């Protein structure tokens, strides 16, 4: 499920606001996408370097090197750059090998039907691979683009693979230059991007809670605007984790912990949707105002803990004890609130809405506890690894 990217698709389909975010981007004529702008600049830089290298210093690959500029310029992060470079080269090597074998067969039996059969077989295999897993798709694509150079460069069968080999050298040169540019110009480590997205989603969640518990219309509008970017953050997280596999050793990837964090954030999103819908719909009810006002100071502490946990990757602190203590305090305070009996003055529906708010807040704390615990595992493992590498400093 994870390696076939089904998990991120499942998440995207469950997030009700994702389509709204995309529609808003499409409808904005003057919208400037920062990532798209950077990709454009990288592509131009790679193109100029490859063109200069081919003209000035005779970079291997000849004029074909410039055709690969856009392939490496639009790659979003270093993980995908390493992945596509590796599988792209594998595809070209396999393509050259198939061309070489095909030429041997054609030289023995130079019939047009054999040429067509071999070329059709090669194209079928390349298309099959290109339409399979996203990881190896680039292998099929590069192999498929190479076959015409090896078999059908002219109107008849080609018995020389020098052009195909030149394409291999061009790809190799483009990989070398592309990775250098990716490292030096706006380097995008997928693991760093993943941690930034996690921190951002936690921080946004805390801001949403802070805006909702004020029971003010202007803050409700702010919360509505924040829920949309939170929904947009989630579907890309598993893809970044997948990309990070190509640049980080497995023992430093912490895939299991990251998956648990992403799951907890998704639970938080569902609880925030419930909280948002309940508070906005019933904010004018005296029962809602009475309940939230009574717990206002404790709910403020929840928002502060969200802010603290959002920076936990850098702070290296563990906030699990504070989260547990606050949850216990809230449960005890709500118990005292129930004992006072003021809830008997409200309609059953109003009491039900109080329960929805209370259980959503507790569920949010449970998710936050899980996130803090998993981040602490990642931080502790990092400390152990650094200690093993630098025993004197440790």
Molecular structure report:
With 394 residues, the chain is mainly α. It has 18 helices and no strands. The longest helix is centred in the last third of the chain and has 42 residues, at 348-389. Mean pLDDT is 77; it is low at 14-18.
List descriptors.
single chain; 394 residues; mainly alpha; 78% helix; elongated
Secondary structure category:
mainly alpha
How confident overall, as mean pLDDT? 77
What is the N-to-C succession of helices and strands? HHHHHHHHHHHHHHHHHH
Uncertain residue segments:
14-18
Radius of gyration: 28 Å
Name the beta content range.
under 5%
What's the story with the biggest beta sheet? none
Report how far apart the termini are.
Answer: 39 Å
Tell me the helix content: over 70%
Count the DSSP helices. Answer: 18
> What is the tally of beta strands?
0
**Anisotropy-based shape:** elongated
Itemize the secondary structure elements and their pairings.
Layout: H1 6-14, H2 18-27, H3 34-56, H4 69-73, H5 78-108, H6 112-130, H7 137-151, H8 162-184, H9 190-212, H10 217-233, H11 237-244, H12 250-253, H13 255-282, H14 286-294, H15 296-310, H16 312-315, H17 320-340, H18 348-389
Helix pairs in contact: 2-10, 3-8, 5-6, 5-7, 5-8, 5-11, 6-7, 7-8, 9-10, 9-11, 9-13, 9-15, 10-13, 13-18, 14-18, 15-17, 15-18, 17-18
